[in-house]
Amino acid sequence: MEIRGPLELPARREDIVLETADELRLVGELSLPESSDPVATLVTLHPLPTAGGFMDSHIIRKAAARLPALADLAVLRFNTRGTTSPRGTSDGAFDGGAAEQFDVAAAMDFVRERGLPRPWLLGWSFGTELALKYGREHDVEGIILLSPPLHRATEADVAAWAGEDVEVVILVPELDDYLRPAEARERFAAIPHANLIAVEGGKHLWVGESQTRRVLTEIVAAVNPAALPLPNEWPVG
Fold first, then answer.
1. Element of type H or E holding 59
2. Peptide bond before residue 229 is cis, with ω within 30 degrees of 0
3. Bridge partners of 171?
């Protein structure tokens, strides 16, 4: 069976609720390898909810659908405050990336309470802003930024990562709507150890199976390279 589109591979999936310091309840899901312990954890931060971003935004949904089985990863995804998906609606209202710092903290509290290993923040678009602004407050092994627009994260937010012993992986689409590779190299130059990957033909929304596979491969290359190459087929029966 070819692995593509919405195909969901075997995993242990659990509906969860995160509780924030300002007493909101955020709906989410934890996906774990079906029959083994995870080797690392992806804490996903979705695109801008006012532009349709949510925990089911396709790259995040496909990471949860595939990577527990293909790469032994735990994947935590959730709706930030005021965001709705088929899983439900999180309490509160969108705060432009300010009070969302409590949402990131609630997710990291959950990771710690569950004893999930080697957490990485995986942000996409608006989610990259949250990772850059608030990720340094938490015990993470690295951050992975997909299509960072750098609208809310300031120069100081970026430069602060230069002093962190944390991996920084940045995937910048060649044809991005907001930040393309040449400008991205300039704006992330303040982080000498950052690994900036320009993706030829890529677009902000990473539409299409070839783009999905490229993004998931780069995620696994950072977090669990022993699982590469990712298969394109899954045995049936």
1. helix 58-71
2. yes
3. 146, 197
d(CA 55, CA 80): 8
Query: Tens of pLDDT along 87-145?
Result: 999 999 999 999 999 999 999 999 999 999 999 999 999 999 999 999 999 999 999 99
CB 107 within 8 A of CB 20: no
Residue-by-residue DSSP string for 168-211: EEEEEETT-SS--HHHHHHHTTT-TT-EEEEETT--TT--SHHH
The pair phi, psi for residue 68, each rounded to 5°, is -60, -40
β-bridge mates for residue 74, sequence order? 41
pLDDT tens across 129-178, in order? 999 999 999 999 999 999 999 999 999 999 999 999 999 999 999 999 99
d(CA 90, CA 151): 24
| Two structure tokens written together for 79 | 């709706």
The answer for residues whose C-beta is within 8 angstroms of residue 186's C-beta and 6 or more apart is none
- Residue with the two structure tokens 């949860």: 64
CB 218 within 8 A of CB 169: yes
